[in-house]
Amino acid sequence: MAMKTVEESHVGISCYISNLPGFRGILKQRYSDFIVNEVDRDGQVVHLSSLDAPPEEEQQKSVQETGTNTSESDATIVTSYASLLDSFKSLAGDSNAAHLEEFLNQVNAGDDKSVAPLVLSPDSNKSHRTAVHNFFKGNFKFLVTDTVDGPDASSKCIRVRLNSGGPNNNGRDSKKRKERGDKPFDSRGSKSWPEALGKFLRFHLYKENKDTQEALGVIGKMLGIQSRSFGFAGTKDKRAITTQRVTVYKQLVSRVASLNERLFGIKVGDFCYVNEGLVLGQLSGNRFTITLRGVVADSEDTIKASADALGRHGFINYFGLQRFGSGSVPTHLIGAALFRGEWELAVDMILDPRDGEKEAIAKARKYYKDRKDVEGTLRQLPRYLVAERAVLQNLKRSPGNYVQALKAIPRTLRMMYIHSYQSFLWNHAASTRVQKYGTEQVVLGDLVYCKESPTGKITEIVASECDDDSGDRCDSNIEDEVSAEDIQEESNSFVKVVTAEDLNSGCYTIEDVILPMPGSRVIYPTNDVAKVYHDLADKDRISLTECVHNVKEFSITNVTGSYRRVFQKPINFEWELLTYTDGTKPLVETDLDKIKSKPVNGVRPVDAPDAKNEDNMRQLESSNDDINLNTDDNEIEGEEVILPQDESVSGSNSQDSQTALKLSFTLPTSCYATMAIRELLKTSTSVAYHKTLNQ
């Protein structure tokens, strides 16, 4: 069932807006060719402009002495529970007590994210289960329990989890947690924090060739705090240079700023104190600066025409390849297995060997596939394979309970599989819409957001992927790929089917056309596009209206669905042709370069040393600059492509001189910059393809 690599056609990416010819260009030959700057909700592009702590911070030195020492914090949650374990053994038996002791030891290790829930042995006695619940409630304040289905339909099990609020907190759903806006953070810090300072230090995080969680993990380790101390609006590319806003709970700016001397590939700056921490979704988009190297085209006119067309007409708003995973086991196939209720198959696909992984990981995966030795595989798998380890740790405690093993995966990760299958259907529907009805006008039966007071047949827009009673919060970030809700419009927006009257009035344009992400609360177009959803789902033995199993969170009837615009224009689009001779040098100044005042060597605009040639620099204002943007995207994943340079034939008389195309534009969150590049080049955006360009 696994593919060698995921190709664009496999996931519904097959059409273009323009009929212009493409040209050759290498995407991400160096990670410095892909620069991403977050855009905040006020439309301001986030830049790193200063590494220094504000002068007034010097007045807080005395606070630093007493307020930021975390060496004696509550890092050790568990000390000694010997007597409680003896009591639990009397209540629940030796086996459950042994599993609980192992669970507590994992919690005591301090890495909360790697601690999978503990599922106790099946218990059919409700009164006894109540006694167990009360035992945990009375003795382990940092743990929470609930009841889940057992290995067969008639049995129940108690699940024990780490309370996300921490040992000194009242838990995820407590009144105190709700009052602070449900913003998770490590509560360790100053017990005497100055009232004059906001509780959160906000700073700009600049990172090179590191993902957001990795960078914050390094900073957190230096500060001696856990990752939940930090807040951010969205994850950013690893294979890129990115700048974004971050907040950290109760840390002095002088202490954080001092880390710059020890940080490699990471810098922090532009500090200020604020009263609220950042949460996922608090941004309006991202500003991309992308350099395509080794550009080869029939003529410069071909490049200019294609770049102008991208700015004016945009691209099909496909979910990019990274939405479906970078390995040979596509995430949408795992999602399909979950919708069908094929739990063991889903587990096997998550653990199966896949192409391109490190030898040690490949060996561990093959070991499990051949021997099904859970403990032996766990010893071999690295800790950062969170989903795989969560599954195996649960199977170790409850052999054969594949449903519970899947539920042990952190919600953000397990929902990635569901969203991936929805995206698979959406991409195919978008291609069908383009193939049948073109890219120039609205047609009868299309879906649009209603521009007027609701009349006729409309439906209120869906703004959540999870029902309110789903039993678990709907996380707004899929890590670290995927954003949870891809298009969240204003709550008073409505969706309607385009009628003949609408067509006659001319009030809707092609830019208004939307398509649904399948779910229980969406409507479908009333033209031929709707059929592709059901045909593809039927082919995968999935019903979009009924669930074949009783596991609610993996049910299509429990996923509410959403809507997504079919066509997207890049905002504030600019492009420029450059020539270069040294392929090892960066072609664009980064925020850090500007701080250090280091010029970028070896770059000049084609035929225009002053970089002001109007034929080579264009700025096009998009008509949808005011689009409402609420979630974050997760751009291209995969290995950095380092290739030898070849000769460009575009605008250069020197054998050693090559052409590059620099693009700058802003996209709403959940839009994929790689899909804009695809429209320009008319070639695949896969990492594997770009590796072959110079072979």
UniProtKB/TrEMBL annotation:
Residues 179-189, 607-618 have a biased composition (Basic and acidic residues). Signal peptide: none annotated. The keyword DNA-binding does not apply. InterPro entries: PsdUridine_synth_cat_dom_sf (IPR020103), PsdUridine_synth_TruD (IPR001656), PsdUridine_synth_TruD_CS (IPR020119), PsdUridine_synth_TruD_insert (IPR011760), PUS7L_N (IPR056963), TruD_catalytic (IPR042214). Gene3D superfamilies: TruD, catalytic domain. Residues 61-73, 619-631 have a biased composition (Polar residues). Residues 314-569 form the TRUD domain. Keywords: Isomerase, tRNA processing. Residues 50-73, 159-191, 599-631 are annotated as: Disordered. The keyword tRNA processing applies. Pfam families: PUS7L_N (PF23943), TruD (PF01142). PANTHER family: PSEUDOURIDYLATE SYNTHASE PUS7L, TRNA PSEUDOURIDINE SYNTHASE D. Belongs to the pseudouridine synthase TruD family. This is TRUD domain-containing protein. It comes from Stylosanthes scabra. The lineage of its organism: Eukaryota, Viridiplantae, Streptophyta, Embryophyta, Tracheophyta.
